[in-house]
Design brief:
Blueprint (H helix, E strand, L loop, with lengths): L2 H43 L10 E2 L1 E6 L2 E6 L2 E2 L11 E8 L8 E5 L2 E2 L1 E6 L2 E5 L15 E5 L7 E10 L7 E2 L2 E5 H39 L4 H18 L10 H8 L2 H15 L13 H12 L2 H34 L2 H24 L10 H89 L3 H21 L7 H16 L5 E6 L13 H21 L4 E10 L5 E9 L16 H16 L3 E10 L5 E9 L13
Parallel strand pairs: 14-15
Antiparallel strand pairs: 1-13, 2-3, 2-5, 4-12, 5-11, 6-10, 6-13, 7-12, 8-9, 8-11, 15-16, 16-18, 17-18
Helix pairs in contact: 1-8, 2-3, 2-9, 3-5, 4-6, 5-6, 5-7, 6-7, 7-8, 8-9, 9-10, 10-11, 11-12, 12-13
Length: 653
Amino acid sequence: MNDHDEDATAEQLSDRERRRLQTSRLVQYLLLQAVIAGACVLALLQSLPGPPAQYQVTAFNLTEAGVERAVTLPYFSPLRNAMNDPPRFTGQFVRPAGEAARAWSVFLPRFTNGVEVTVNDVVILDSRRDPAANRPDRNTPAIAVIPASVLRDGDNTISIRLFIWGPITGFLDRIWVGPDQLLRPSYDLRTLIFVTLPVVFSSWQAILAVILGIMWVMRRHEPAYGVLAAAMAVGVGQAFLQTPMDETPFSKLNVVLISSAPIESALVLTFALLFSGWKWQRYGWILFIPGVLLALAGLFGNQATVRALFLVLAVPMVGFSLVVMAVVTARSALKRQNVAGFLLGCAVTIMLTCWVVDLLSVFQMMPNRIFTARLSYSVMLVAIGAGLTWRFARALNQVDGFAGRLVSQVREAEEKLKASFAREEERARAAALARERTRLMRDLHDGLGGQLVSIVALSERGNGSAGIGDAARAALKDLRLVIDSMDDIGGDLMLALGSWRERAMAQLRPHDIALDWRAVTAQGLPVHPELRPWHVIQIVRLLDEALTNAVKHANARRITVRIETLAGADGFDRGCITVEDDGKGFEITSEGAAAGAIKAARGLRNMRSRAARCGAELELSSCAQQTSQGTHQGTRVKLTLPHRFPDSDGAAG
């Protein structure tokens, strides 16, 4: 067997293990849902605790469709509409002697759709006065206190008329007639379960609709939240609207909203599909056809038509939606394996079970008729709320984890950055020291070194002490220049120019040349924080060169140094130093060099090189001709400093 066959066999084994694992998970999920459904059925078959059996009245004479016969409650009527001639139940109950001091009541746990209760020919209850209690899917109980003047000791007659207006057949549950204090606890229990809790869940549903709506507005890329918010809003409308008994300006709208169960089911089904990863298709609108037809019937038809169509359109649509949702949520829970999908699948199982039980009770296959499908809808609300909470908590954990990882990564990056910065700082310090060492070596070599060589040469030639003294003074001057350039002047070049001025006056004094020092602007020169010692020494050497040329070659009697700050075309201020003499001048070629004298030309090149190394501009102007007045125009050296000095000594071209 080769490697390819071994890989194929391993892949087959892997696929087989994967299918076995998926099958195992599916079986476990289905078994759990079967257990949930069985538990729901057992819970629904349990009867709620009732009043003492001795006060229960079960034997009645029923007059229905003109026929009188004996019946035992609970009773399922075959009629779907009986308003003008409703079924009448007539029975007897006994109030023992001595009970006159206690109030007696009639307690009706469940009926469809409305009742009128008469005791001894006196009407004590008419449920039609409470439209909120007349919904077919409501389990609203009723209790009425019998006036003391109506009751008598011994036999009493009770008559119940059952009004039926569909869409399902009529139903009357067992009734109790007895002391109010014994009947009231059962009434309160049923009111809590079937009236108060639905209102609480409907309020919660309204809050959930608002929350989901906000989530959809903030996260438009997740339309499932918007669809579920619409479904919650429709459900709230169904819960709080009353059944219209007569035709009113708003009765049609009430009918449409109350009968909007297929629209709500379609919206919830759409949410389940989107939640499981299904993308909206063009044929998705088919889900809303039953709801739209029922709404049109409510707008343009009458209430009887809507009630008839409700059984044909709404009930099957609700069942279809629940079955599809059960399949979709099961697939999502097994595929994604998240808590939200699992909880939603369990909630759908409970709702589907309650819907089946309600359907069986409509077909009189259950001993009682208590509708729990609408009440079980609260289980989905709990599942959705728990799923959203779980998702929110998971998102918070992910954010906390991401924040923790980010803090760790930032801390690591910061440590690395500090180490890198320390290395770069060390390299920069070493490079700066190397540059400064190189500059000092070059300055000492170019200045002091040359002077020392001259001293040695003069001493060897024996030309006398005068030349040696001059060379030594020049060397001392150059050494002072190098030392002065090392001083920290804080970027203020005026401090260095002050020292240079003293040396310039000492240099000009033996030659009887006057120094005219002019600071044109009050601040002199701008302060440059980036100014370095090598900038200072280049500028000072350039000025020394200009001063020496004037002393040696110009035959000048006055040298003017002008210092000022000029505003540039770019809006930045630039310092300007001008050295001008009244000597004879010299001729400058088109290339900017001195004509004729090689040594002078070399000096001008050095001046331009020093200016370029500092990023400054050097401008030379001179005239070797006499003017008409017989005076000499002289030479002018203008050095315009940069707005910002270069960081590197190799900036010169």
